[in-house]
Specification:
Structural class: alpha+beta
Strand content: 25-35%
Biased composition (Low complexity): 214-235
Region (Disordered): 208-235
Radius of gyration: 21 Å
CATH class of the largest domain: Alpha Beta
Largest sheet: 8 strands, antiparallel
Distance between the termini: 49 Å
Organism: Actinomortierella ambigua
Shape: globular
CATH architecture of the largest domain: Roll
CATH topology of the largest domain: Thiol Ester Dehydrase, Chain A
Number of domains: 2
Domain Thioesterase: 113-188
Protein name: Thioesterase domain-containing protein
Number of strands: 8
Length: 235
């Protein structure tokens, strides 16, 4: 469920002024070769050169090293045979359209050789978040609903294209449509999503959840102690 402050899902060109400014700690000869292949893809070349309409961003450039290690797609699932290279991420100038070119490795499968549907759902969740959040109050929000149609098996070890467009925005709600396709245009999956901006800052929500968890743990501990004491008296 993507949802965080603006820096988490709204690309920030000020923080990613150079496409290759970040040192990729997951780089290997294999992933470096894939990076070179990705940069030469027609769709990447086309959108990189069309600076009047598109801005290329460094995916997850805003993350600290600590956050990156625990982040699902930028850390846990990054590496050779996984999400091998950082996506080529493009945002339209009006911030209503986002395109990402992503490499899915052979270690992301459910059925042999076929990318797990849950992974595709995660990619759709992220691409729709990148589109929704810049258009919400406070540029932040949470996934409220994500409906996915799987149209065709996704073969592993290939580049795929995630394409997301803002359908409408009403107050604290943003409605988004997205697709996943192969480079030759075969539709793999499509989705609709609803994102909602919180009424209070995300930091306050996190603090409240932590307090609730601590309170629940304390109550459980007290209940366990009371139960143990009662059993001792009964003996």
């Amino acid at each position: 469920m993507p949802g965080a402050e603006v820096n988490s899902y709204a690309p920030d060109s000020a923080k990613a002024s150079s496409i290759h400014s970040l040192k990729d700690t997951y780089a290997t000869p294999v992933t470096e070769k894939l990076q070179a292949e990705m940069d030469q893809l027609a769709i990447v070349v086309q959108h990189t050169s069309d600076a009047d309409n598109w801005t290329r961003h460094v995916s997850h450039a805003y993350l600290s090293d600590e956050h990156r290690r625990n982040h699902l797609t930028a850390g846990v699932l990054r590496g050779e045979r996984l999400l091998s290279v950082a996506p080529a991420l493009f945002q339209s100038k009006d911030q209503r359209h986002v395109i990402a070119v992503i490499h899915v490795g052979e270690a992301l499968c459910g059925h042999p050789g076929i990318v797990h549907g849950g992974l595709l759902g995660t990619l759709l969740d992220e691409i729709t978040a990148y589109t929704a959040l810049p258009n919400l109050p406070g540029k932040t929000g949470f996934t409220a609903n994500l409906n996915i149609n799987y149209r065709h098996p996704t073969i592993a070890n290939q580049f795929i294209v995630a394409d997301s467009v803002l359908d409408s925005q009403e107050g604290r709600k943003a409605f988004v449509k997205a697709t996943l396709k192969t480079l030759d245009g075969t539709l793999l999956a499509d989705a609709t999503a609803l994102f909602i901006a919180p009424k209070i800052p995300v930091a306050e929500i996190k603090d409240q959840l932590e307090k609730n968890r601590s309170s629940s743990s304390s109550s459980s501990s007290a209940s366990s102690t009371s139960s143990s004491s009662t059993e001792t008296k009964a003996e």
